[in-house]
Amino acid sequence: MTIDEIRDNFALLDEWDDRYRYVIELGRTLDPMPEAEHSAANKVQGCASQVWLSKQVDRGGAGNAVLKYLGDSDAHIVRGLIAILLTLYSGHTPEQILATDAIAVFNEFGFREHLTPQRSNGLRAMVERIRADAREALAGAS
Q: Which residue is catalytic, options 23, 33, 47, 53?
């Protein structure tokens, strides 16, 4: 699924109850995260729910890094937010990640008004974790 497909599906849903159900459904599409990846190193700090992001850096033939992620949470709605976030970021280069404003995309979908402050803080923590990984991958390449 692409972010444009998610955007189109959101546009079809007028009620926030339907949008929440869709987000939860997106969370069910996440690739399973192996239990070993539910580690302290992969845990995202600053989230009210438990959230894990596991990173893999693949180097392409030209040596360009591509960051791939698995994500999981103990909260259904947060798993859905992770699914949207990974649609934006996983499988992309550090430059692409740093050029993508995930918070703006989530705001475009209306999440600013419909997430609790704790969930919003957790979302920002997940975004910052991935952006920090991208900056680290860029620094390692130079």
A: 47
Active site (annotated) includes residue 47: yes
pLDDT digits (tens, 9 = 90+) for 77-91: 999 999 999 999 999
State pTM to two decimals: 0.93
Give me 66's structure tokens.
């591509």
